[in-house]
Amino acid sequence: MDVSVIDPRGDDWASVPHLPRDAFEIRIDGEPLSPQIAARTEFDEICPDAERTGPALLADPRPTLVVLADLNFLDARARHAVARALDDLADIAAARPIRVKVLAFGHRVTALTPSFTSDPEVIRSAADDLRRTVGSGPPLIPRDPPTATFSPPRPELSAPVDVVEPAPPDPERLRPPFAVAAPQLGAVTASGPRGPREPISPDRELAERSDFDPRPSLAAIESVLLSHAGEPGRKALVLFTSDWFDLPDRLWLSEMSETLLAAQNGFTVWTVDARGLAAAGHRPSGLLGQLAAASGGGTVRSAGRLAVAFERALSQLSCYYLFSIPAEPPERGSERHSVTVALDTRRHPEYWAYRVKNPNGFTLLSPARHRERLRLAALMEPDAHRFPEVRVSASYPDGKKWVMPVEFSVLLSDLSFEPTGKGFEARFGWEGIVTDEEGRTRCRLGDGRVRRVRVASPPARHPPTMLVVRTACPLGGPGLLDVRVVVEDIVSGEIGAGTSFVDVPEPGGGLARFSPLRLGVASGRDFLVALPLPAADVPRDEARAAFVPLRPGEAVLTTDRLAARFVACGQEPPPRVVLYRRSSGAATPKVEALYQLLTAARGAVSRGGTVCREYEAVVPEKTLGPGRYGLAILDRRRRIPSRAALESLLAAGEAEARAEFRVAPAPQFLPPGDHAGRRPEADAPLLTRRPAGAVRESRTAGEAEPAPAA
Questions:
Q1: Which of 79, 222, 560, 599 is a good FRET partner for 568, with 20 to 30 A between their CA atoms?
Q2: 372-664 has which CATH code?
Q3: How far apart are CA 303 and CA 228, in angstroms?
């Protein structure tokens, strides 16, 4: 628990340093800590010049800010004000070391900076992106007459007109986004204007203060907090919104509980009414005040400079106290406790003027619920969960049944194996979700069960042996689909996640004729699980039917079967797929065409006379020797007079798509350290299913991501 001690007589939000442990009084649920708990409570002062050294001091010393602009409650004037505040934040980043990530929420959460950055120019670029969204936000319209749900009545506002700027936001600049998921792994979106009143249940109504429901914004805040929970040290979320972001008082507790639970991962929340001085004289949002106070942050409203929120948050992060209080989690569900931290002014009367800021409560989760939250965080931010390594591959659907095949693979050597009486055993669980570009959930993957893999000896890391799981998703229609899978190693607690994008457009004008090539391998060492699992025994993939996506820079072994998949749209015959080799002997590598591959059609979608099909071309195992190779898609109507002509076609950029790869020799024996000197081919894994609670998952890296460093 983070605690700040502020001197209200000054203008600095940094904590007063060098206070002793006996100056603090802590009460949980109104009762002081028992002597046993108090003796086990750890206390650290996290300040640059503090004499104490705690674990938090070993993390990155730069303050971490996550900035979220809720576009649903920001009109043109407010968006310009937030952009000016980001320009001021860039000036701060140029003067001192900080880490910043800027996000925006409209229909879904979108990153305006690629990742955490300290570069002032990247922050200014995010401010420019925010300015380009002007014109797509809600206007300042007069509010509806006050209802009995709210009291006292609110004065109505004038209705200035939004200024529409000529440069619209580039949709590709804001992609790829991640969906806003509720704790039940469902998608939550703000789907446009709604009526002034919306029934929630027969005995509960929501009187909205604007045309947008704030509950999707709460889900967005929760997703941001969860997806950045793995960042080290104390962090601050600065939320730019307006006083329209509100709920009736009696709904605060129920609607805000999950958001506050996500804030327990080292976050304080600072809320900013971006209307600035225009908000003076109007009733402030109680929901924003409660969200900030409950997390130990603060609220900024009626301010001429919105950047004051950054200054206060950074000042608070520069010095604080950290209490580690032992607590037993419940066996099931969760438990909510209130916490009060005060200064003992009887023992230290000189501290009477200081003010203590800390979270006013905390929630204890059962192990199963805790794993569920970790899986949710991995689904929201796959890039932060790279181990165990998970690779996701989704295929084109069948246009008649709209069923999309999905495969994901896990490196067996990444799982933790425990010795048993008959060998070694690893336990894992997995889940997944498929959403479209509007954030709607198309389907959920996984059955929430813990599975076991039994082997005679732990698999070696090289040559790699994969566990491939094949399932399917009923889509119901086209769209830009985001496939996410998380896998949890139950033994170690590690969670990995992976993602893959599949664009299934409505066939018509503007379609690209060919998609990029996707390369995958089937080694024959892998084990394939086709769900629903017909039996407990998991057979080895002797038919080499698996498709393990090939990472950039990863080599294909001579004993691997290589497959290339791509989508072609139009009524033309299937294109040519030509395999070529690059010679490395000459000063300038030359291209030598080898032969044309046969293609087989997989899924197909047909609308309005246009057909889009996914094709697969296969290079059999033990066909290619070590060296550098490539695959090129050529229009079948283009005549190639000779093999030498291929080099000129590739140099002129006339190939529809191409991909190059490297073939390496397969190892003849296992490297030292392999358990019992057994080859993985001799292992006989057994996968059994048994019910369990929530299964935590791991993240897979996407197909276009570079391989993580060893």
A1: 560
A2: 2.60.40.10
A3: 28
Q: Of 225, 280, 291, 217, whose CA–CA distance to 257 is shortest?
A: 291
CA-CA distance, 320 to 510, in Å (whole number)?
56
228-263 pLDDT, tens digit each: 887 877 889 999 988 777 776 666 666 777 777 777
Candidates 298, 289, 245; CA nearest to 270 is 298
Q: Is 639 helix (H, G, I), strand (E, B) or coil?
A: coil
Q: Is 251 helix (H, G, I), strand (E, B) or coil?
A: helix
Note the Cα 68 to chain centre separation in Å: 15
Tell me if 378 sits within 8 A of 228, measured CB to CB. no
Structure tokens at 103: 């996000």
β partners of residue 610? 607
Helices marked H in 489-565 — which ranges?
A: none
* Half-sphere exposure for 605 (CA within 13 Å, toward CB): 23
The domain ranges of the chain are 2-50+333-365, 64-152+168-318, 372-664
Determine the Cα–Cα distance for residues 705 and 199; give it in Å rounded to an integer. Answer: 44
CA–CA dist 498, 698 (Å, integer) = 8
Global pTM reads 0.65
Could you tell me which of 382, 418, 371, 373 has the C-alpha nearest to residue 496? 382
Q: What does the alpha-carbon distance between residue 365 and residue 329 come to, in Å, rounded to a whole number?
A: 6
Is residue 270's pLDDT more than 70? Answer: yes
Q: Say how far apart CA 55 and CA 60 lie, in whole Å.
A: 11
pLDDT band at 9 (very low <50, low <70, confident <90, very high): confident
Dmax (CA) for the chain in angstroms is 96
- How many residues in the chain? 710
Output the pLDDT for position 240. Answer: 92
Domain spanning 64-152+168-318, CATH architecture: 3-Layer(aba) Sandwich (3.40)
Whether residue 17 contacts residue 319, with contact meaning beta carbons closer than 8 Å, is answered with yes
DSSP assignment, residue 413?
G
Instruction: Count CB neighbours of 411 within 10 A.
Output: 19
**Contact status, residue 5 vs residue 321, Cβ threshold 8 Å:** yes
247 with 206: CB under 8 angstroms?
yes
More confident residue, 451 or 636: 451
Q: What is the mean pLDDT of residues 409-432?
A: 87
